[in-house]
Write a structure and sequence with these properties.
The protein is an alpha+beta fold. Helix content is about 35%, strand content about 20%. The strands form two sheets. Strands 1, 2, 3, 4, 5, 6, 7, 10, 11, 12 and 13 form an eleven-stranded mixed sheet that branches. It has a two-stranded antiparallel ribbon with strand order 8-9.
């Protein structure tokens, strides 16, 4: 595997595992070696990632044992791996980010990398799992319950493509809710309560340290004053998002007359009102969006936004196919068409979440701990959180923290497995198509799904 690169094997009908593909996988996984303090731990990492890539059923760790025909005692060894102190998730994420950042497949806008971020919820019935809580489920599907019990994750992705296909390759998927007690145990007196929005910006800030200046694409739920305040700590990061339909902004202040405090804002205005009052100022154009040419009308204006903050933002009012939206950018140098094009790429992370759930089954974990207070499903989240905070024994706390690490570790290794499959499709697309074999799904274009 580590010898000189060889030519592609003769293409036989029904064969898609080429020698150079496995050499590429081996070389990529070798870059994670420094993340593990023990060679055996690195070996189990390679086994688990390969197992996640090729397994045919989605029943947690046991599916890897069956797919690779491992001995029965491998199951307990894998459980120990996910709780091992020989590796850390943040170091693993940094290594994965360095691999992605050094790829020629990166998609950039004005010389900056494009990050995507969003939250994802996964239902879990385990009553001894750390982080499980009652969650509100936003969905237009009437078959889904309004509330579920499960985990709330925050995902961060990086746009990559080969000109034919574009993916939001996931960098990390971390627990963002239900683990405040565990964070207090780790940080003790230095603990600061952080919301899902704040944690998303913090995760993106860590990515900027490795990638350099970047643009983060978020949905409308993230446009908040705390988000803009946290964003100020990362000067290399800018955000493109969407405003709510009732958003109120402010015109710049008038000339300062030298009396009293200098004003930070002018008159207020409902941003959606511009669709009526400034309809004659809209620009008509055609843009390639979602793989099709769309007729679009837009109007751009810079306004102040945020109570007591009044930060200047760029608002782009768009109308396409009878649908009206207000896009927002913290970077005032981006043109309206750039902002529209960027936001339309945000949905790529939703596609990656779907593949992580349905193809790789990255949320098919079953880690739990006897030390966890039993979840009381008919009690409020505050009561369950108080029960967890009342755990005082150092051994019980360690066991609960190790279980939370196992959950996040399983998801992170699934993220790496999915990312490798996506990169294989981008790098070896022609070989896979010409080989006449199968690569996850029916081949429909030059880059297999």
């Amino acid at each position: 595997m580590g010898q000189e690169r060889k030519s592609i094997l003769p293409q036989k009908r029904g064969t898609w595992l080429y020698e150079n593909m496995w050499e590429w996988i081996n070389a990529t996984l070798e870059k994670f070696r420094y993340c593990f303090s023990r060679p055996a731990t690195y070996g189990w990492f390679v086994i688990i990632v390969i197992g996640l890539m090729i397994r045919s059923d989605h029943l947690g760790v046991t599916s890897i044992v069956r797919e690779l025909s491992l001995a029965g005692n491998a199951y307990m060894a894998m459980l120990h791996f996910f709780r091992s102190e020989a590796w850390y998730i943040l170091r693993l994420q940094r290594a994965w980010l360095d691999i992605l950042g050094g790829s020629p497949l990166l998609i950039k806008e004005s010389g900056r990398c494009i990050l995507t971020g969003d939250g994802v919820k996964e239902g879990k019935e385990g009553r001894k799992m750390p982080g499980v809580k009652r969650l509100h489920q936003e969905s237009d599907n009437s078959s889904k319950g309004e509330y579920i019990h499960g985990h709330m994750f925050g995902g961060l992705g990086l746009l990559m493509g080969n000109g034919v296909k574009t993916y939001s390759v996931l960098i990390s998927v971390m627990l963002h809710d239900g683990i405040s007690a565990l964070s207090k145990w780790r940080q003790e007196d230095d603990y600061i309560e952080e919301s899902h929005v704040m944690k998303m910006i913090r995760d993106a800030g860590r990515a900027v340290e490795a990638l350099g200046e970047s643009i983060l694409l978020l949905d409308r739920l993230f446009l908040t004053v705390p988000m803009l305040t946290a964003l100020a700590k990362f000067p290399g990061l800018s955000v493109v998002t969407k405003a709510k339909c009732n958003a109120t902004a402010y015109f710049p202040p008038g000339p300062y007359k030298g009396r009293g405090a200098k004003p930070k804002k002018g008159a207020s205005v409902k941003v959606f009102d511009f669709f009526g009052t400034h309809c004659h100022k809209f620009t008509q154009t055609q843009m390639a969006l979602y793989g099709q040419t769309k007729d679009i009308r837009y109007f751009c204006i810079d306004l102040r936004w945020g109570k007591k903050l009044y930060q200047e933002l760029r608002f782009v009012l768009t109308e396409m196919g009878g649908t009206r939206s207000v896009l927002v950018s913290t970077d005032l140098t981006l043109s309206p068409t750039q902002i529209i094009s960027l936001y339309c790429r945000r949905f790529k992370i939703e596609c990656s979440f779907r593949e992580l759930k349905q193809v790789v089954a990255g949320f098919s974990y079953h880690f739990w701990s006897k030390a966890m207070p039993k979840l009381q499903k008919f009690k409020s989240n505050d009561i369950n959180r108080a029960n967890l905070e009342n755990v005082t024994g150092p051994r019980d706390r360690r066991l609960i923290q190790d279980t939370a690490k196992a959950i996040e570790g399983f998801v992170q290794l699934s993220v790496i497995a999915l990312g490798l499959l996506q990169l294989i499709g981008l790098v070896f697309g022609k070989e896979i198509v010409n080989g006449g074999g199968r690569f996850m799904r029916t081949i429909s274009n030059e880059t297999p799904s």
